[in-house]
Design brief:
GO molecular function, one term: transcription cis-regulatory region binding
Strand order of the largest sheet: 2-1-3-4-5
GO cellular component, one term: cytosol
Largest sheet: 5 strands, parallel
Oligomer: single chain
Pfam families: Response_reg, Trans_reg_C
Organism: Anaeromicrobium sediminis
Structural class: alpha/beta
InterPro entries: CheY-like_superfamily, OmpR/PhoB-type_DNA-bd, Sig_transdc_resp-reg_receiver, WalR-like, WH-like_DNA-bd_sf
Distance between the termini: 26 Å
Number of domains: 2
Length: 224
């Protein structure tokens, strides 16, 4: 599985160079030139962000704050042309995983990024965490709100994760579509049955070893 990194760098040529280097290393890369464009992609929840501190429309620290509000555990690596120690310390104090000063070699950035990924996603066996549920071939980490197979993360949306957790804790129990809507979206939500069916389709595609049985005219049930 390739890790997804989002790069926010306003200098066009340098942005392209970094994107090319990371792609050549097997990363799934998406790049942005403005912070406002990156904000629209926050809910994609990539594995990692690399952000230039000085962007044309906002401060990189401000962008990280918005990212952390959605996904507090997603690593952020800062880049900056400012050589002051105070800026480097600030970036780390507010939650940055690393801080690299420009100019730097793209190879150095990739090494730093790999180390962050190693620490965040690979170092500890996921099953060592007490807040995990094993469900067939998958490990559900409730603390990180993440799903893993063979210690590798699988990207799920918030609703996909909530429904998977519901199934994992109630294996064999049948849920009507109305019950699923009430549990996942809330009792007073305006969600129809087709949204539930679409959620199931996405989960089956992302988790092919998961056995979700369709109960026609009623709902769904997870098989152990």
């Amino acid at each position: 599985m390739s890790y997804k990194v989002y790069i926010v760098e306003d200098e066009i040529n340098f942005n392209k160079v970094l994107t090319l280097y990371f792609e050549n290393e097997g990363w799934d890369v998406k790049s942005f030139f403005r912070g406002s464009d990156a904000i629209n992609a926050i809910y994609d929840t990539p594995h990692m962000w690399i952000i230039d501190v000085t962007l044309p429309d906002m401060n990189g620290y401000e962008l990280m704050h918005k990212i952390k509000k959605h996904s507090k555990d997603t690593p952020v690596l800062f880049m900056s042309g400012n050589s002051s120690t105070s800026e480097r310390v600030l970036g780390l104090e507010i939650g940055g995983s690393d801080f690299v000063q420009k100019p730097f070699s793209p190879r150095e950035l990739i090494i730093r990024a790999n180390r962050i990924i190693e620490t965040r996603y690979r170092r500890t066996s996921i099953t060592d965490n007490v807040n995990t549920v094993k469900f067939r071939d998958y490990i559900i980490d409730e603390t990180q709100r993440a799903v893993f197979k063979n210690n590798m993360p699988i990207e799920l949306t918030s609703k996909e994760f909530d429904f998977l957790k519901l199934l994992a804790k109630n294996t064999g129990q049948a849920f009507s579509r109305e019950q699923i809507i009430n549990c996942i979206w809330g009792v007073n939500s305006y969600v129809n049955d087709r949204v539930v069916d679409d959620l199931i389709r996405r989960l089956r595609r992302k988790l092919p070893n998961l056995r979700i049985e369709t109960i026609y005219g009623y709902g769904y049930r997870a098989c152990g």
